[in-house]
Amino acid sequence: MRKCDSANPPDSKILKYKATKYVRLSYTDDKEKESDSIINQSRLIDDFVKDKADIEIVSEKIDDGYSGIIFDRPAFKEMMDDIASGKINCVIVKDLSRLGREYIETGRYLRRIFPAYGVRFIAVNDNIDTAKDSYTDDLTISIKNIMNDSYCRDISIKTRSALEAKRNNGDYVGACTIYGYKKDEENKNHLVIDEYAAKVVRDIFKMKIEGMSASKIADEINRLGILSPIEYKKNKGLPHPTGGYADRDNAKWSATTIIRILKDETYTGILIQGKQSTYNYKLKKLIDKPVSEWVRKENTHEAIIRKQDFDLVQKIMKLDTRTSPNKDKVYLFSGILICGCCGNRMTRISVPYKENKYYYYHCPTGKKNGCTLSGMIKENDLINCVSQNLKSHINNVISFEELLNSVNSEKINKELMNKAIMRIEENEKLFESVRKYKSSLYENFINGIVTKEEYTEYKKMYSEEQKCLENAVAELQKELENIMSNNSENFKWIEHFKRFSDLKEINRTAVIQLIQSIKIFGKNRIQIKFNYQPEYEKAISFLEEQKERVF
Ligand SMILES: [Zn+2]
Question: Is residue 105 domain-shared with residue 189, that is, in the same domain?
Answer without folding.
Answer: no
